[in-house]
Amino acid sequence: MLAIVIPYYKLSFFEETLQSLANQTDKRFKVYIGDDASLKNPSNLIEKYRGQFDFVYHRFESNLGGISLVKQWERCIAMIGEEEWIMILGDDDYLDSTVVNSWHKHYDAFYNKSNVVRFASKAVDMRLNGFISDSFTHPLWENATDSYYRRFKGQTRSSLSEYVFSKESFLKYGFRDFPLAWHSDDAAWLDFSNDKLIYTICESNIFVRHSDECISGSKENQDLKSIASENFCTQCIYTKLPLFVREQRKDLLMYYETSIKNNRKLKFNEWYKLMYFYTLNFQFIQLLKCFRRFIKSFYI
């Protein structure tokens, strides 16, 4: 069965999330709601849905998301029972009524072939009076590296709520604890996929809300986001660079360099790594340009 985990903190749109779960045409799922000691206790609202779908609600004594969103996700995941597949649903996102039905209908197609499954998605922009975008769809099967690269190039979008992942992969890799969990989901799909393809269900949508309350929609905390981007590039993109194709590596090496420069000067060993990879990829023009930037950084 499918576990839908909701790390709860914001009440603003939470009823729409719960209503979408009650509207599921297939009830073969269980919801686990982990309340991050929110100032807005949702227990009365949640009780309205008692009997409409199976759920467990737990209010934690201390707020953890303000320190580490990833650790809040992980303690919510620790609530689940025997379910082998996990969706982390944002407390302001919601589902098509057919999402769970589609999941079970496609199950045999991806079982033992994929560790990461995603749904099509629609963006709900509260800054544009709740405007709902067209559906973002994806290839039926796709490498995690190609999927990330398309997002990197602005050719698609991606958010945590639209993915389902195997508990086995989560237990093996865990989430990378970047500031604000910025890029933690990107890193997860690269890790969790474990050399298997991502499978996409395009017939049902996850509705992902964008507002000033969301981290992704907020212009605040840019310094933390910048640090998270550097950590993501250093810990994930750089170490997985051989998995990307040659032309993708060129762009990602520049991203790696820029993400560090946004916070500090590159160290000598980081310049060395860049030039090593440019040489390995036979990208000699980029190597020469990188060498010039290195000289300028240290000696000019």
TrEMBL record:
CDD domains listed in its UniProt record: Glyco_tranf_GTA_type
Pfam families (alphabetical): Glycos_transf_2
UniProt keyword list: Transferase
Recorded superkingdom: Bacteria
Any one Gene Ontology molecular-function term assigned to this protein's record: transferase activity
Gene3D superfamilies, A to Z: Spore Coat Polysaccharide Biosynthesis Protein SpsA, Chain A
Transferase keyword on record: yes
Membrane spanning stretches: none
Name by which UniProt lists this protein: Glycosyl transferase family 2
Organism, scientific name: Flavobacterium xanthum
Lineage: Bacteria, Pseudomonadati, Bacteroidota, Flavobacteriia, Flavobacteriales
